[in-house]
Amino acid sequence: MEMSQVRYVLAAIETLNFTKAAAKCNVSQPALTKAIKTLEDELGASLFHREGKRVLLSEFGRSLLPHLQHIIQEAEATRTLADNFRLLDQVPIRLGIMSTIGHMKLSRFLARFQKEFRGVDLEVSEGKVGDLKSRLENGELDLAVLNPLDGLGDSFRVQELYKERYVVIFPPDHRLSAFNVIRLSDLSDEPYVDRLSCEMRDMVMNVCRENDVKLYARFRSEREDWVQSMVLARIGFAFMPEYSVTLPELMQRPLVEPSVTRTISLVTVPGRQFSPATAAMVRAAHKYDWPG
């Protein structure tokens, strides 16, 4: 079975006319007819019934149709991968990631992407939301993964990847381990570790003030690793996005009343021409089975 034969058969099925099918495939009608007859002889059954000038699909041809379509789809996908491979390694993808995003979930996506597109070079840098927006707008980044908060305006295209809850983290022997969920009121006057780089910090602090919840920050840091280490050292608890917790020794409980969630999104600049590598990553992010 040759690819040309498969294309001829599919064209004939679509048109139910060998002359039109030949024109569609840019071959002569005798050449198309001969190729289909050769395939039928190879398969040992007729794909079409010929009634004078009429062409009808046989029952065998109808049963074979999904398989022939799959062959063509796979061939086109393989050709696309080959074309992309020749182009992907020309320019690296410059990906900006918000510094408070945990690497565990995102790294799995990036690993799968690079396994599929082995010719891609990837350059990852971290930053705060404002910094990433500026670098993306100035063409210093191709893509950015961040929390768009209240929106980014018409200057950016936002593709939601996943949502994640905020949890309360604490050391194993902390009194909060007795709770299944933790209400904000349960934390009043409790020493805590302040995540200064959290893009939702102001909102969380405002909620605490509105609910008369008093928190005593015994330690403050912009570094996520320091925050978690100091929590584990029993300095206090911390609020943390659930997929950002990296120390397995830490315990965590969902924050409720109120619950807090954030949305992690892939951000691009509308109208900007993507390199083949960047376009491939955007498609892969759209198809990926993200957590939650």
Automatic annotation (TrEMBL):
Pfam families: HTH_1, LysR_substrate. GO terms for cellular component: protein-DNA complex. Residues 1-58 form the HTH lysR-type domain. InterPro entries: LysR_HTH_N, LysR_subst-bd, WH-like_DNA-bd_sf, WH_DNA-bd_sf. The keyword Phosphoprotein does not apply. SUPFAM superfamilies: Periplasmic binding protein-like II (SSF53850), Winged helix' DNA-binding domain (SSF46785). Keywords: DNA-binding, Transcription, Transcription regulation. One of its GO terms (molecular function) is DNA binding. Belongs to the LysR transcriptional regulatory family. This is DNA-binding transcriptional LysR family regulator. The lineage of its organism: Bacteria, Pseudomonadati, Pseudomonadota, Alphaproteobacteria, Hyphomicrobiales.
